[in-house]
Amino acid sequence: MISSLLSSVHLLSYDEIDGSSLFTILSYAAKKEEKLNVCVVLDDAPIAAKETLIEQLKSYCTISVFDKVRPNPQTKDIMSMVQDERFGACDVVLGIGGGSVLDSAKAMAMLATNKGTLDQYLGSQPSMTVQKASLPLVLIPTTAGTGSEMTKVGVYTDDTGRKYTLGSPLMHAHTAVLVASLLDTMPPALCAATGLDALDHALESIWNKNSNAITASCARSAAIKILQVLPKLYDAPKEERRALQRAMLEAASEAGIAFNLTGTASGHAISFVLSESWHIPHGLSCAFTLLEVYDWALQDQENRNQLSLISKHFHPELLQEDELVQALRSDLALLLDHLNIPRIFKELSVEIDKDAIEQEFSRALNDPKLHNQKPPLDAKSLYAMLEAKR
Fold first, then answer.
1. Share of the chain above pLDDT 70, in %
2. Parallel, antiparallel, or unpaired for β 153-157 and 163-167?
3. CA 250, CA 387: separation in Å to the nearest integer?
4. How distant, in Å, are the alpha carbons of 32, 132, 369 from that of 86?
5. If DSSP codes are grouped into helix, strand and coil, which group holds residue 96?
6. pTM
7. Rounded CA separation 255/225 (Å)
8. What is the pLDDT at residue 1?
9. Residue 95's beta-bridge partner residues?
10. Distance from the CA of 56 to the CA of which of 41, 119, 214, 240 falls in 20 to 30 A?
11. Would you give the DSSP letter of residue 178?
């Protein structure tokens, strides 16, 4: 993948991987082979290929398993793992799981060298900042969506329930390993939610004040691949999924490369409120306002140029920009319908009135992600966008 040249993370892609090959990767990352001590960060998702891989790895090195990870990873859980005496002997951190696992592994590797507590690094005025490179870190995603394996950021939830983004180039993984077989048991609903997260990453990297020609090229490539692969993967029988899973993993990582350079935008700022207040899964939260943010983004001419280039891939017969951007919008709407994605608050089982919208979503106005939106999304327009979804 040529887009990997935009990242400092080494990217490897496989249909399957065994313990011997993974040990070699970990040894390269740690610059150590004998008596290698690997701290493996996991969740409790029942993935047989993951368990087999870990069992094989035990033949080559010492393993300590840390599995206190839940969705929207809690700072207190991460600290309990960091403070485990086994973690002090760690040579390399290996995260195998969805975005919450990968983000937890990032925080643990960072705290191993920077010390302090994770809460001290969070918020608009943190008492500590990342000053040292993380412990060697290898990340293996088991969902195709977050792109966390390629990014410098993690998302963490404090004791009050607030979600915070922490990012530093010093938090990058050494290596990201994409393994298609680890997605074999992923149910269609999770495939849809994580895939739409990846699509949102690509599009938010385009309608972003930090976008440039190179990041836009990367984001377009990722968006096209996701739009091609995601509906096929969602519908495919198990025996036909392996190649699609690998393609989707690669597309999600490419979207991660793009938004790692630009940041995300208003869709993610809105999604944080949905996750914090109503515990809506992240991918569904991001998809909830995708069409509305798309319509807002069309006010900017450069956004229209970039989106029309994506659309041209699927509609080469169309010549006019207006036709192209509307055709792409229709494609997105059909995809959301095909994947059974909620589009209004009632479909999320959320009852909310106008006053509650302003009260709940006012905190999105202070989110740096919202301020990446191009053109800027003001409070009045944000509230009107959400009011229309009641």
1. 100
2. antiparallel
3. 36
4. 18, 21, 36
5. strand
6. 0.94
7. 10
8. 77
9. 41, 139
10. 240
11. E
